[in-house]
Amino acid sequence: MGQPEEGGARRETAVAASELPPGQRLQRGWPVTHYGPVPRFKPDRWDFRVFGATADGDKHVWNHEEFSALPFATVVADLHCVTKFSMLGSEWGGVPARTILELAPPAPQVTHVMVWAEYGYSANLRLADFTAERTIFATHKDDELLTAEHGFPLRLVVPHLYAWKGPKWVRGIEYMAADRRGFWEERGYHNLGDPWREQRYSYQEEPGDGPEL
Ligand SMILES: Nc1nc2c(c(=O)[nH]1)N[C@H]1C(S)=C(S)[C@@H](COP(=O)(O)O)O[C@H]1N2
Ligand SMILES: [Mo]
């Protein structure tokens, strides 16, 4: 026997060559990677806020029950950590970022968003990255509710960017009329974070890629 295992190994090599961004390797299982402690979910205190330059000038707030009632969708996407491991082909379930944009539209001058999470973690995105078809606020992965370590009750998944651009334990979105660096973008990571262009570190940035450091 042993035939299936060989087949498996061959497939993995093929996957690594054709589907992984440069410098990434395939990861078995799902490691937990983040800075700081895992927050405890308090359902009665949890809310999701859209603020900053909204079209109507108001802050939009959903409590957990209201957020859970928003239309559910799924997206198949890979996760690429800048520390070089990738996890391929997960099915993320939750609320598409586009749904939030329709319910709480940004003002015309908005060019970027800051995604805010528990304990002040943040990640900045160009509006186009946020409105991308597959960007999703995930509550589920592969039909199972997220665990606390993986971001329960809500994490952002931005399939086409490195995973630090998708905060776990996300609590809100700030609409911005100019770019501003988030948590890792201020600490040496690339302002844009495209894994296919291997935009890992801020020293690789070209003029126009981000605000002055
Ligand atoms: N709030 C928060 N979200 C975060 C991080 C973090 O430090 N804090 N780390 C990011 C990084 S670098 C990665 S690779 C992924 C890891 O997600 P996982 O632990 O579910 O694999 O979460 C991202 N989201
Ligand atoms: Mo990461």
UniProtKB/TrEMBL annotation:
> What domain of life does the UniProt record list for this protein's source?
Bacteria
Kindly give the Gene3D superfamilies that the UniProt entry links to this protein.
Answer: Oxidoreductase, molybdopterin-binding domain (3.90.420.10)
Annotated segments matching region Disordered: 1-29
What Pfam family is a match for this entry? Answer: Oxidored_molyb
Oxidoreductase molybdopterin-binding domain residues are 36-184
UniProt xrefs under CDD domains: arch_bact_SO_family_Moco
Q: Which InterPro entries match?
A: OxRdtase_Mopterin-bd_dom (IPR000572), OxRdtase_Mopterin-bd_sf (IPR036374)
How is this protein named in the record?
Oxidoreductase molybdopterin binding protein
Q: Which organism is it from?
A: Streptomyces laurentii
**Phylogenetic placement of the source organism:** Bacteria, Bacillati, Actinomycetota, Actinomycetes, Kitasatosporales
